[in-house]
Amino acid sequence: MHIFEGFLPSPWWQIWFVVSIPVIMYGIYQMNKLVSQRREIVPLLAVAGAFIFVMSSLKLPSVTGSSSHPTGTGMAAILFGPAVTSVLSVIVLLYQSLFLAHGGLTTLGANVFSMGIAGPFVAYAFYKMASKAGMNFYLNVFLATAIANWVTYVITSLQLALAFPFEGSVFASFKMFALVFATTQVPLAIMEGALTALIMKYVVQVKSDVLVGLNVLTSSAATKLREAME
Amino acid sequence: MKLEYLVAIVVILFAAQFFYGVANNPDSEFGGADGEAADMIAEMNPDYEPWFGGIGFEPPGGETESLLFALQAAFGAVVIGYTIGYYKGKGEKN
Predict the structure, then answer these.
(1) Which of A59, A63, A171 to mutate to test the interface with B (most CBs of B within 10 A)?
(2) What is the ipTM of this complex?
């Protein structure tokens, strides 16, 4: 879900651009550096971007009678961090707003912030902390991805609530928007987390050295995961 | 293989909740949650008009929209499949 074109009045749409643009710029810088220093990560970067493409095209129906789609950003966040994820998200969001009339150009800043920055940032922080604490890798990927999805919708609700307070109260409005999304997103996020964990398993299987190079896994953790597969 | 089983269970549960949802909301069209949010804005602020719009291509109907979504998914799936296959093939050669 993205905030529709024209649905954020001034000054909110400008504010979200101001917040998002520096992160995107930093992401482009980081991405260039990564690509020039580590050619071997390019295919993985493509996979992460493609995963966002696939996930955000799947409009899945939920128990409450509405549909929404996963964000797919958790994997990119775990692999490359939130700044690079924001760049990948811009590409997907541009496609959807230009060809599908989903989201919009004026709301791009806000949508990039919720989907490409806030969600991935929390997911990334969670992944790093849980991985230090020794959590099982796949469980960690599952949770971080689901969290990225949930945070995205919490932030979207907040963005809408800030722009459209209900009877003067941002909080009342936030609760209303969050309720619309919560019931749709909870099962979706679980599904997305499970799929991401599965794809990561195949990445570990075929290319765990790249994960070690990206500091996603320590080499001992990677060896252990590979041994567990045999 | 254990992870595959777990994911399969999640997928089955997800499908189950969908059928449960269909049974419980027989009239629902399963429209987007974003549309619901837009309706809510309209309810809360009856005089709010989207102040900008009409840039970009608007799919002429549901069918074309499905096509574009399918293309988006297919493109992504091809890249993922190709890359994992590429890695796998390379790994086997060494």
Answers:
(1) A63
(2) 0.81
